[in-house]
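Encode chain A's predicted structure.
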Amino acid sequence: MGEKYTRSEYIDAHQRAEVAAERARPLWRAEWPTWLLIVAIYGGWLLTLANWRALGAVPATLLMIWWCAWYMSLQHELIHGHPTPWPWVNRLFGYAPLAIWYPYRLYRDSHLAHHVDSHLTMPALDTESQYICPREWAGMSRPVRLVYWFNKTFWGRVLVGPALAIGGTVFEAVRQPWRGDWRYVPMWLAHIAMVAALLWWISSAFGVPAWWYLLAISYPAQSLAMVRSYHEHRPAQDHKQRIVLNEAGWFFRLLFLNNNLHLVHHDLPSLPWYLLPRVYRARRDTYNARSGGFHVDGYGELMRRYGFTAIDAPVHPLMNDHALENRAAHV
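Encoded structure for chain A:
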């Protein structure tokens, strides 16, 4: 669970008491909204496949993109200890590779490591950093640099962001055993076997080709999921000012399970998704001051302002390679 990697921080004693009171309420203990979410995602995914021909390829594909992207948000919730207090039970609901690209264990380990807030945004330390070390940047060719600049635009993140993330993950998966680290090889072999079985079943049972599921469903679902992380963190001296508060509309709030209120999630990583807005509203002004004004009025604002304009540079502006190496040596 998240508490293994980071200590929950409260704005004040009142918030600590409020969260303690929420923990005692049946809504938290029973977690029925998350149980309903599990049923909706798995049921919707299966029903869409079962009615593929009746729905038509385009509507069914759009629905499948939603289910797979929503499933990734569910996996995030499962990782943080919901809906049961037993991690092995939660893992059962997120282990299926419906979104294809990442093994559940890999996502769990890298995401929980990301919750060390003092490391946020720093390459080589933050497992979800979108920034590059100066030394790595210096060794890149001009075409590769242009791709990373494009990735810093909203539509660039949607189009090439998944390819960069997936490519980086596959590269690391190959490099680790090449360097003698075989810890994750069984995980990858099991994941590849499950993906192969899933794609075969979808093709044979519902007539959806494997290549279509990969390229027309799973990749766009990853693109949709990456909208949330586009401007989720920024470099700042105060690590709490590195975390966004995005007051998104209902569509993205539902898709991302309110994780757009990202500072609240980092403060209280065990808080269920359906309680994040309530905690935020009770301390809205204080939270926005805590974030250093890192506030966004929905993803439409990001789309309009940074559709084809880089939001910042790919190279981290506050850290040099020497500092990163010293920090990494002490982790």
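Residues 2-329 form one domain.
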